[in-house]
Amino acid sequence: MTKLLVRLFLLTWVMAGSPGLYARGFEASDSMNIVGMKHPQIAPDGARASIIVSKADIEANRFTAELRVVDTRTGQEILALDPAWEVSESRWAPDGQQLAIIAKRAGVKEAVAQIYVLDIKSPTPRQITQASDGIVQLAWGPDGKSVAYGREEALGLPKVDGKLVSFEVKERGYLATEPRKRIQLWIAQADGSGEKQLTRGNWTLQVPYKGSGPAILPFAWFPDGKSIVVATQAEPDVNSLERALRIVDVATGEVHSLLEPDARAINPVVSPDGREVAYWEYPRYGDAFSFSVRVVDVASRTVRASPPQPLDHNLSLARWFPKGGDILVGGDDSDRTSLWIQRRAAPPIKVDTGNLDLAMHFRVRADMSATGAIVFVASSPQSPFELYFMANANARPRRLTDYNAAARALELGSANMLRWRTHDGFEANGVVTVPYGFQANRRYPLVIVSHGGPMQASTLKWNSFTQELAARGWIVFEPNYRGSDNLGRNYQVAIVGDMGAGPARDVMAGLGELKRQFPIDADRIAVTGESYGGYMSGWLISHYQGWRAAVLGAPLLDIADFADLADVGDLAGSRFSGASPWEPGGQAVNQSQSPIYASAAVKTPTLFLTTTFDHRVPVVSSHRMFQALRQNKVETRFFIYPVEGHGTSDPVRELDWNKRWMDWIAGHFDGAPGEKGK
Asked: Which of 6, 65, 174, 563 is deepest in the core (most CB within 10 A)?
């Protein structure tokens, strides 16, 4: 009975958000009606594009992953795969008439995803693999008769009651219930007639991150179909910087080196003539967490010199133009996420995408056809995500889909970029969203929302969460402090060895400029954020006073805990603090940059929100800081979601998380009943 009541309540909530006759403000239910999009792929001839759309299924308490195909000339949807299929990847066959997908039946927890092929005219998925373990990415062979894919190796360790008896710890991740598996290259016949393993050995294909992280594209075919280039590493550890490129002979399985492990190479892409391979270059320790796109000549195995005026951006896309030489790249770019043409021997050219932001979250969602046509997912502050098409890099973007038209009809907050100078001369910026009907002659409460990463950025894109905050009558400020990846590598690397104090000074300088330009109620300011944004909020409340409330979501609070226990602790822990906790003097360095050790100074009412099984940021630090505030008689509450993940990943818990976040702020801004603690 209780479960039925919850479902009826949530369904009523969502139905209340359906667009009506009159315009209204953005509500919590509207966030559940936003259609998300990922993995756009364009057919080789540019005539069709596929996209995976995500919708909130309240009844089943999941977000769907549905395959759609759109005609790029008309925008007409020509295929919608049954939502019972949960699709994670799709790729076009060379003839543009078939799609290969990685998919499984939705809602079946134990189901292993397989590769299926479907014909556009008869879209019934046909299974072509029989994998017992996970599949990682796929790529069609040039002849359209075979599909290469990565496949996890069985561990071969004894089990009892369905779990391993024991396993040796070799990498980070204190919540692991089994070691990471090696991934080898396989080939399946597109007609389903068989599959075979191509590679074996004491190395693995590039391993994926758990949850969010850089895109994983560990292999690519050469145009003649005789060889495949693969990105490899010695151990299946995401923290490893030893990333090599190897070439695999498809007929024999023989492997030859292209670039040694110190190249830090991932995500290879072969040029149209097969003579060069573009790849992402992983950043070194002590450098900004910023990827470059490099090119290696296959015959000589030499890396092409950087082009004139190389892009000073964290790049997360590489697609060859049809004639080779030039590469389409993308990354955060001050106000927005942008595309550029990275040219062989000339300065890069920025692609004009108007006021659209290309929706980067560790990756730019875009693809290019053999004709030079481009598709991408993009948004703007008052227009949620849609699929866009450009006939070439000089064409005007044209919207193909209209999935989120209802949201565009609402009374939405408007957003602009605020700019200011930091104490040491950097130009910083941040997004300011004001409520619909904003009036300059009245004072508004302010909510500061610091982004995570820290190697991410707040740009002029759609954000359901900030729209919901603004709809409550609050101004929202999303600062890009040092460490953000939209203002150049010098600004990004300035966080190294200065994780807390420097970025916090940037935020406070931005707050000062915000107060000069906007009518802020200085007595009603809340500081909030998730992940590193939770770290920043923890730092602000432990080093500055005057905040009305704070929300720390999945916060990093103790760098040593993070470095030792998180799945990416080695990559991100000492990379940003500047020292390992266990080298001489390292404990003092890390404690001086960890908010938890300044807990005694906190006076702000603070809400903690975490999951129980957070692989990315250890929840133990939240428990410790929560107890510190309680013992110091600071108003605080702590809610845990008993699920796995760095934050919630289902509609019911996402709604609950956001409601607690906003009610906590409202209760302290307005004195109204909210999530106040004792």
From this structure: 563
Any residues with CB less than 8 A from the CB of 665 and at least 6 apart, and which?
Answer: 447, 474, 526, 528, 548, 549, 551, 674
CA distances from 241 to 232, 235, 264, 437 (A): 11, 10, 6, 50
How far, in Å, CA of 503 to CA of 540, rounded? Answer: 10
| pLDDT tens, position by position, 230-248 | 999 998 887 777 889 999 9
Collapsing DSSP to helix, strand or coil, 67 comes out as strand
Structure-token pair, residue 311:
């892009």
Q: Tell me which residue of 285, 289, 241 sits closest to 266, measured CA to CA.
A: 241
Residue 282 DSSP label: P
Mean pLDDT of 220-229: 98
CA distance 558 to 617: 10
Residue 215's pLDDT is 63
Let me know: does 554 contact 617? Beta carbons within 8 Å: yes
Does residue 218 lie in a domain region? Answer: no
- CB-based contacts of 516-521 (< 8 A; 24+ apart in sequence): 517/418, 518/432, 518/434, 518/444, 518/475, 519/440, 519/441, 519/442, 519/443, 519/444, 520/443, 520/444, 520/446, 520/475, 521/443, 521/444, 521/445, 521/446
The 3-state DSSP class for residue 87 equals strand
CA distances for 478 relative to 181, 278, 390, 429, angstroms: 38, 34, 31, 9
Backbone angles phi, psi at 220, to 5 degrees: -155, 140
Instruction: Please confirm whether the linkage preceding 123 is cis (ω < 30° from 0).
Output: no
Integer Cα distance of 15 and 511 in angstroms: 38
Contacts of 395 (CB under 8 A, 6+ apart): none
Amino acid letter, residue 668: H
Q: Does residue 150 surpass a pLDDT of 60?
A: yes
In a domain, residue 144? The reply is no
Those residues whose C-beta lies under 8 Å from the C-beta of residue 22, and which sit 6 or more positions away, are none
Residue 410 DSSP class: S
Q: Is 303 helix (H, G, I), strand (E, B) or coil?
A: strand
Helix and strand totals (H; E) in the chain: 12, 40
**β 349-350/336-342 pair status:** antiparallel
DSSP assignment string, 363-387: S--EEE-TTS-EEEEEEETTEEEEE
What's the CATH number where 545 sits? 3.40.50.1820
Query: What average pLDDT does this structure show over 292-310?
Result: 90
Q: What tens digit of pLDDT does each residue of 497-553 get?
A: 999 999 999 999 999 999 999 999 999 999 999 999 999 999 999 999 999 999 999
Residue 627 maps to a domain: yes
Token pair of 89 as six digits = 């990847």
427, part of any domain: yes
Q: Which two tokens stand for residue 249?
A: 């002979």
Decide if pLDDT at 253 tops 90.
Answer: yes
Average pLDDT over residues 548-565: 95
State how beta strands 444-450 and 475-480 pair: parallel
State how far the alpha carbon of 220 is from the alpha carbons of 187, 269, 364, in Å: 12, 6, 19
Q: How many domains does the chain have?
A: 1
Range of the domain at 474: 415-670
